[in-house]
Amino acid sequence: MTKKPPSRVPLRHWLFALPALLLVSVFIAVPYFTIAVMSVRTPSNTQIYAPGFTLQNYIRIVGDHLYLGLLADTLLYAAITAAICLVLAYPTALHLARTKSHLRGFLYAAVLSPLLTGVVIRCFGWIVLLATQGLVNDALRAVGVGPIPFLYRPTGVIIALVHVFLPFMILPIMNAVEAIDPRLEEAARTLGASQVTVFRRVILPLSMPGVQSGVILVFVLAASAYVIPMLIGGGRVQTMVTVIVQQLLGGFLWPFGAALALVLSLAAILVLIGFTLLTRRAMRRLA
Amino acid sequence: MSLRHPLLIGFVSAVYIFLLLPTVIVVLTSINPAEYLSFPPTGFSLRWYSAFLAARQFTDAFWFSTWLGLAAAFFAALLGTPAAIFYVRYLRAGREQFRFAVLSPILLPEVLTAIALLFFFNQVFGGTRTVLPLLIGHVVITLPFVFLAVTSALYNIPPSVEEAARTLGATPSRSFFRITLPLIRSGVITGALLAFIMSFDNVNISLLLKPVGTSTLPIQLFDYLRYDFDPTSAAASTISVALTMTLLIVIDRIYGLRAVRF
Predict the structure, then answer these.
(1) I need a labelling partner for A258 at 20 to 30 A (CA). Which of A146, A154, A286, B238 fits?
(2) What is the fold of B55-259?
């Protein structure tokens, strides 16, 4: 709230925004700051934290293979999820953006509705589907592939992650494709470009911003997922977030949990910066 | 690559089946009389629905979630609507920063926000013993949905309508209550319905901020599915899905689903 209103906006108009800005400042900005403070507090066995500040929480994470391995696993699952989502979403988004089918409204609702169905319920569906006696394994047995244990394994967790976050990849790509002026394609076709060339030189480069935001969204969501690894992984697939929540709710090791949360955030941000730089170069080459 | 290429159609159809299958399975499980979660269904029965109605832990959680969602949607609409009006009509400089600030609850990872609020309430409010921290958490994460819906409603009405009212002698407040507000009403309702759905389905915020002894429906399902499960939870899930779908149809009727952008 220290932001000074620009002189052109009268003070009474700021009253419109004040409640929302107060809410976000007090209940987002300040609480995020408390994570940082908590992470340098001294851990204690008898209370939430002891007086004084220390870096020992961070030193413990960096020095322990268990937590570094957990971090690597978490980022790897998130990256695999984003990659599979991209492969599934791109053709779907292209079709949805350009189809003139009368089913279009229904298809859009089909993409949107999973977003609005609780994640617990969708995990429940996957538990039924992926069980040893479930529909997927029945189908696999029918074609002679032995039952594959999906539940309590990273495979099952990644399948559910892809399912839950797929709409977050489809929607931005669809928006980007819809924003492409159809006359650009027509012009390219008139000038003699083949359908493949039009896709490669016009649609693909112009849809890249959508791909970029889709990948970033899905990566962040998958790296910070809690319910899916808990339910599909059944406690046998651990990620940074399941361990953090366990520290907070089970162990009351708040300073250590806070440090873990910040290490995960920092690592995810570094991965995303690398990704953005790489795709920017690729986009320049495509264009 | 043509849109009607059979390979593309086949691929896209498979993606839609993948998207919808788990929810369909849950619904089918809930009407299957069998004791175990089995597929395909062996018949039709509503026994799991009567089991749901008889299970206090589920019905209590259902009503608690409903009240929490209604309260969160009310306050999110109350705070989000003026913020959207301010953003569209008045704000000149720093528009991106303002938008980012109001949307930050959905841009930041929800688990992280829940952890931050847990620490915050513990240091400032003396813990999460009452429903208030939980309600505040739900208002914070549902605020962006009202903001987005009202912003898009405002962009759809030309400023000239309000100017006309002002030229004809209406005071600013009269033109706001008589012209602007009725025109964005459907946007506000859509935002509030989305806020309700998001609150009703929320797990992360509820898990970390709920007072001991109360439970929301998703938390109750989550706890149930972690240890043992019978199809009662499928019935509870189906009721929750049916509620969401009904609200979606309402949104589609009053505002059009296409206008809902994330």
Answers:
(1) A154
(2) MetI-like fold (1.10.3720)
Instruction: Please give the residue of chain B at the shortest CA–CA distance from A21.
Output: B102
Does residue A18 form part of some domain? no
The two structure tokens encoding residue B138: 């739900």
Task: Pick B240's closest partner by Cβ from A8, A121, A127.
Answer: A121
Task: Test A128 with B102 for CB contact under 8 angstroms.
Answer: no
DSSP B179: I
- This complex has an ipTM of 0.89
Residues of A in contact with B8 (CB under 8 A): 91, 95
A120 to A225, B50, B237, B239: CA distances (angstroms): 12, 21, 9, 13
Task: Please indicate, yes or no, if residue A37 is contained in any of the structural domains.
Answer: no
pTM: 0.91
| Residues B105, B82: Cα–Cα separation, whole Å | 18
pLDDT tens by residue, B110-163: 999 999 999 999 988 777 789 999 999 999 999 999 999 999 888 888 778 878
Helix axes B56-85, B232-254, angle to 10 degrees: 20
CATH number, domain with residue A252: 1.10.3720.10
> Chain A closest CA to B168's CA: distance in Å?
22
Cross-chain residue pair B208–A249, CB shorter than 8 Å: yes
> Domain limits at A272?
73-286
Taking an 8 Å cut-off on Cβ atoms, the answer to whether B104 and A28 are in contact is: yes
> Closest chain B residue to A268 measured between Cα atoms?
B109
* Closest alpha carbon within chain B to A25: B101
